[in-house]
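Office hours follow-up: a student asked to see two folded examples consecutively, so here they are.
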Amino acid sequence: MFTGIVEGTGKVEQISKNTKNRSAIKLTVNLGKYSKGLKIGQSVALNGVCLTATKISKSNCIFEMIEETTKKTDLGNLKLGSIVNIERSLKAGDRLEGHFVLGHVDGVGIIKKIQNKTKEVQIWFEIPKTLTKYVVKKGSIAIDGISLTVVDVKKNQASVCLIPHTIEITNFKTKEIGDKINIETDILGKYILK
């Protein structure tokens, strides 16, 4: 489990097919200082996608992704040098500062508008039609693993606002109109609607 409080970013160092399992892709990410204490088998959220560390060498960590992961998230669009958001999994007793984030991405959205304001940046993004019922004004949402509050909703689009600190420590400093983003809607809203 995660909170959506992104710790920082990492850089994609290598992408390769797993020779033992041809449908799996090995993703090598330089986690920098966020690799400290990480053990094989532990979970790390990359752009909000929960992945398992399968090999660690200094600050580089290898994650294996199956085809389902690359098709249903934006991780299939990663290239060498791509910057990804990093969040280590929540430890029992840690402070819960964002909202409950599972790392199970519901769908992929597309950035439609970026509005730079005095003390914030407002991002408008398209929501897949199957997710619109879960996205509500003032509700919680995870975008690329970042816990955010929905500012506004208009048909199949929604917006969030990011403060300068969030932009500085996440991959949003590299985002542009047309870029894809991972969306995880609020788990509590899903259960209430069910």
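And the second, which I mentioned at the end of office hours:
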Amino acid sequence: MIHKFDALVLGGGAAGLLCAIEAGKRGRRVAVLEHADRVGKKILISGGGRCNFTNIHCQPENFISGNEHFAKSALARYTPADFIALVEKHRIPYHEKTLGQLFCDRSAQDIIDVLESECRAAGVQTFLQNHIREVQRTTEFVVHSESGEFRAPALVVATGGLSIPKMGATPLGYELARQFRLKIVETKPALVPLSSPTKTAGRYCDLAGVSAEVVAKSNHHAFREKLLITHRGLSGPAILQISSYWEKGQSICLDLAPDREGRACDQHC
């Protein structure tokens, strides 16, 4: 069976759904193709299940990109205030946690409900459990999947990265980029906890669950937020942030007493 649309969006995550909504609002006939049995599965686990859906202090300098002007352009077109207005339109209760981070009061499911509702209002069609077999381009894009053949003059690849394979992450986006000869930046883990060798972790495993405010530094970047000791290593916002800048072979400096003068760094990892 052949399905014809104005735009096809591969991936029913936050980015794919929001893209489909905006295209639908502009009068485009849009289809979202998602390989999972539901949309927004990654949204459900974000923010500890309450979805940290935006940050009121979000600025271009908060993004890591080879093209610093991309974030400026994107944020000028759609700001945190725009998404907050959408959340408030649907009367979703939320709160500011720390440093401008906004979380749902109830559950991340509220954000999925908002996106699904907006998709319906914009006439977006969603095809679940739709595994992509092949993507071609002739005079238009042709996507072959288990649900049939989809055609459209515009194709959006919003399949996500390689993180969390258990949640369904696949390399499809990278494979399509290579197929269409697009440049790919070397991938590496980012916004992740840090694991320690078993011997090292054993020295402080009894402290698992302990959290403290620290300053984490590496590669000329620093973040003052909470650190969490785990059975496997270190986590918490400070570690997740600095992990994006840490390079293999470098050290991470942790100031465990950031308000005490004369103590620049208390521990190296």
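Two things to take away from it. Helices lie at 14-25, 41-45, 68-77, 80-89, 109-121, 172-179, 198-201, 237-243. The two ends are 56 Å apart (CA to CA).
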